[in-house]
Amino acid sequence: MWSGYSTRDAAHLAGLTESAVRGCARAGLLSDGAGGLPARLSFQDLAVLKSIKELARGGVPVRRIRRELVELRRRTRTGAALSSLTLAACGRHVVVREGSCTWQADSGQVLLDFAGPGGDAGQAGEIAAMPIRREAPAPEPVLGLTADQWFERGTELEEDEPAAAIEAYRHALHLRPDSTETLINLGRLHAEGGAAAQAAEYFSRAIELDPRDATAVYNLGVVAQDMGKDEEAIHLYRRALELDPALAEAHYNLATIFDRTGDPRAAIRHIHEYRKLTRD
């Protein structure tokens, strides 16, 4: 009897990485079954994940999608399934469409529809937020920046313009090749964009520079798990926990691997550790 999709199956069907699906489950965007053991995702969960994939195709960074949907759930307090809402991308934000009304997911701000008489309110791109008058900022110079300034610029661009953030981090890395923090951020952005091989290269370089960097080791484990290399991922997660026992996400990901590979005792042990570390 069918009991739901596994995390790996749902990721494949939705066109997302497993890590993105796990992140959505941890953020509370999916059903309770998605975060349990064994992890079982419903048809509604799959619909939400497919919507997230479409939003990403529409130009909204995955981290922003997750944050704005979390805020949508928190702000509305309706408990309504996200699968029942019509979501769209607009100006690198998530918007909700209800009949002829369109509003921004995280703030509830109503958007104006400029489709005109007879226009199709369901067509994306012809809406705009209520205008707020403000002075236009002066153009920011980008030449002659130091490694620290390029790095700071990258962090500022990550959520809105991940491609530009990657370029900024590359400038920072050119000026400071031994910056593990820059390598980790580059690896994470590539992983979020689905470039697993490039992400692994950056994380591996960070580990070569600092073998005790738990964040780099953990992130390399995430990439290995997304690529289906479970044994490698298990080794890396365990190493990350040796370096930083408070890495709750490593326990969560280990639980998902052991659940899927038929070791329920190990899965339960790690999910208990995850819950202890994340308990408020």
- Helix count equals 12
Number of strands: 5
Q: List the uncertain runs.
A: 114-139
Strand order, main sheet: write it out: 1-2-3-4-5
Structural class: alpha+beta
Helix content: 55-70%
What is the C-alpha radius of gyration, as a whole number of Å?
21 Å
Distance between the termini: 37 Å
Mean of residue pLDDT?
A: 84
Provide the β-strand percentage band: 5-15%
* Secondary-structure element pattern, one letter each: HHHHEEEEEHHHHHHHH
What's the main sheet like?
A: 5 strands, antiparallel
How many domain regions?
A: 2
* Multimerization state: single chain
Shape: flat
Labels describing this entry:
alpha+beta; Serine Threonine Protein Phosphatase 5, Tetratricopeptide repeat; 280 residues
